Amino acid sequence: MIENKDSFSQYISYFENIRVWGSIISSRFLSVLFIATAVIFLKTVLKKNILVFFSAIIILGTDGILFNQFSLFLGKAKMNLDTWLDSEEQWFNFLYFILVITVFYLVSRKIYDKKEFYD
């Protein structure tokens, strides 16, 4: 059934299938790494763990500050075949995640050197 090209409107060859799964796995890994560095960044900025918890929920989990607006960080997943195969979309996600992870890491490292967490 999967090999039948009439069953699907857009048939994906074996090579494209590997590329799609590689893109999905790498983008999910980068998004998890992004969330981890965002929480570490919040921990360096805020002192109390309860503030880190609630601010992470608000920033990462809400759909935006205003109604009908995209989410601040995670956004709603676009799960259609065109965005999976679009190389510009894949490069944008890759570079966006790498840039933000690097910025969070550098700022957290700079603040962490100057701050004592446990007094």
Automatic annotation (TrEMBL):
Keywords, A to Z, come to: Membrane, Transmembrane, Transmembrane helix
Membrane-spanning residues where?
20-42, 49-70, 90-107
Q: Is this entry keyworded Transmembrane? A: yes
**What's the name of the protein?**
Uncharacterized protein
What is the species of this protein? Mesobacillus boroniphilus JCM 21738
Superkingdom: Bacteria
